[in-house]
Amino acid sequence: MESNNATSSSDPPSASSRKGEVSDLKLQLRQLAGSRAPGTDDTKRDLFKKVISYMTIGIDVSSVFSEMVMCSATSDIVLKKMCYLYVGNYAKHNPDLALLTINFLQRDCKDEDPMIRGLALRSLCSLGVANLVEYLVGPLGNGLKDGNSYVRMVAAVGVLKLYHISASTCLDADFPALLKHLMLKDKDAQVVANCLTSLQEIWGLEASTSEEAAREREALLSKPVVYYFLNRIKEFSEWAQCIVLELVAKYVPTDSEEIFDIMNLLEDRLQHANGAVVLATIKVFLHMTLSMTDVHQQVYERIKAPLLTLVSSGSPEQSYAVLSHLHLLVMRAPFIFCSDYKHFYCQYNEPFYVKKLKLEMLTAVANESNTYEIVTELCEYVANVDIPMARESIRAVGKIALQQYDVNAIVDRLLQFLEMEKEHVTAETLVLVKDLLRKYPQWSHDCIAVVGNISSKNIQEPKAKAALIWMLGEYAQDMQDAPYILESLTENWDEENSAEVRLHLLTAVMKCFLRRPPETRKALGAGLAAGLADFHQDVHDRALFYYRLLQYNVSVAERVVNPPKQAVSAFADTQSSETKDRIFDEFNSLSVVYQKPSYMFTDKEYRGPFAFAEELGNLSIGTDSGVHIIAAHGVEANDKDLLLSTSEKEDNQGYSNNGSAYTAPSYHNSMTTGAFEAPLDLVSLENLSTQTTSGLAIDELLGLGMPTMPSPAPSAPALKLNAKAVLDANAFQQKWRQLPVSISQEISIDPRGVVAMTTPQALSRHMQSHSFHCIASGGQPPNFKFFFFARKEEETSAYFVECIINSSTCKVQLKIKADDQTTSAAFSELFQSALSKFGLP
């Protein structure tokens, strides 16, 4: 029994053994503290290594802190380094322990060994405890005046650390002035570089509040200072050279002669083995010659060889970084690199991200003289076993064709791809053929002859299937089996998961019906019926639009759905010229690698979930991480009202036009011509009063069987809210954490409501008038976030709402929680009704 009790009250064997080991370490360290026996330092090393290894794997060894400090009284630099590492790790999070380290660190800052002085000063500045800043001023001042360059180098960086802990202490001690003196007078290049780095950051942060700091920052870009750094640039390390070159890139020379002097001085930096130095030098050359067109072009010619050399040497990561910058230059001046296209051929052992970037560059440098060789090379990649590589190669071939280079040969190559009978090749090629036909309609005969032999059953990828369906609709008159293929696709509507494919199918069936009515009547009827019942809102709306369009006038439908073909002259660029210029301004930075300006990956608005200044406690978008915003799966009952003909609506609702101020224009039926005379006899409209009959004719023609009157929508459950409900923020927060999400959905808001929402308070006041009380709000355009609560009239049951409004998309994300979840749906309808009235007259 005694042994059982002992086992139950003790820690697990692994935890107890670790505690025992730490206790043994503590005892051994205490015995060695102050000992000067031979071999003591070796024993200390072994014990220190154990402590550091435990600390590294997450075991708490803070209990041996005092013993480690006592054992640090040694001249062994290895022991010193391990002790500083240990102290820095634990003192940072425990100010009480940090206080114990001050004495021995200050003592070490006066050690005879400059290495120990430097290490101690670095550890002292790295403690990061605001209450101990007064202990840093003295050692830092001595360090900046130390006779050893390593200590001065550490002190220069230590000043910056002190500034971030306590800016006032740093400025009161006049450390920036000491750094400036060292920067301009010190003989050691690394000390000068560290002083420059610290001063740039300190003066950059102070410039907004201090005129003196702003003047000092501008003085760094003066001609004497810049030339001082340029004359010493060969003395600096590679890292320091990059800092100096970044400073020089911001300097504005007074005339062209000065520009040439600087470029001649930096000419040999283009031959440097370090890629960062080469890119920093190129940035100086490019920025200084922007206003000199001829010289700027010569700079491109000069920097081409160093960049191509860097691409072919070094690791794949370095190659990618250099290639990204080369890609930017190629996009700005492709004619300069067009003769070097073979440098961008892919090697078999290169990673995919490098190959993909090279393919983009091959498409950029393609012109009349090299298109044949480039396309031949790309066709070799299409047969590659690497499927992503094959896909990118096909896209590259298509991009070159869209640039109007050797279109005839490229179209033949693409059609050969369709005969390879590889699913991924066929899929990518179909998408490209669609784009080519939009730009070169004259090639439709050759393309359709090959595409017509492809079975839709063998195409599984949504984009490829959508492209095939587009061609079936666009060229229905040239493809004999088009109506029957579309009919089989509509019969399998429920098996198609992609909304994109279903949208294309609706349009294709409509186009085919307008060209070949008898053969497509059944397919169109089935497609419209399936579309009207579709859970996806866009599909449902498009089907409804086509149905009403046919009800109104088939000739108008033809003009809308099937207008005369016009070749697309140019496809939209993914980046604006302004964005590209912004990236060029940030040359030699991550902006070039990411291919987007820095604000897009540093600003909070672009990084992801946004924070709010008026946040309620710790409530946020991610509070319920397991809940996803979902769209409503189903067509609301009142949508059936939209199927009524215009005259029926007039009889039942007057000229409300479904809440819209828009009135459809009147078209005379004399516009009906040719092959559509027979169908138009069934649906042509002489005036609005005949639309009921024509609507029934369309239903009968297409076999839709739509009822003339919709079944009445179920009445919403009566729910009354307390207009004077009160709830404090803490109670709201507690309830929000406890209750599960009852309803989570995305809805649309009227654009007029978005316009009216000049501030979050505007919506809060509107919802307050409908008994929805705002407990917190915040955000900035385009995202606004609100927390509302409401309470049932004469009951304690409450509802809680998180409402996120995107003013750019007019979308609203709702999360509703309720004490009584059985009434959540009724409350949601009431909330949406109030929200929909915001901003309306």
Automatic annotation (TrEMBL):
This is Beta-adaptin-like protein. One of its GO terms (biological process) is intracellular protein transport. The keyword Transport applies. Its main location: membrane. Coiled coil: none annotated. Keywords: Membrane, Protein transport, Transport. It comes from Dorcoceras hygrometricum. Residues 1-17 have a biased composition (Low complexity). Adaptor protein complexes are heterotetramers composed of two large adaptins (beta-type subunit and alpha-type or delta-type or epsilon-type or gamma-type subunit), a medium adaptin (mu-type subunit) and a small adaptin (sigma-type subunit). It holds the Pfam family B2-adapt-app_C. GO terms for molecular function: clathrin binding. Residues 1-24 are annotated as: Disordered. Belongs to the adaptor complexes large subunit family. SMART domains: B2-adapt-app_C. GO terms for cellular component: clathrin adaptor complex; endomembrane system. Subunit of clathrin-associated adaptor protein complex that plays a role in protein sorting in the late-Golgi/trans-Golgi network (TGN) and/or endosomes. The AP complexes mediate both the recruitment of clathrin to membranes and the recognition of sorting signals within the cytosolic tails of transmembrane cargo molecules. It is found in: Endomembrane system. Residues 719-836 form the Beta-adaptin appendage C-terminal subdomain domain.
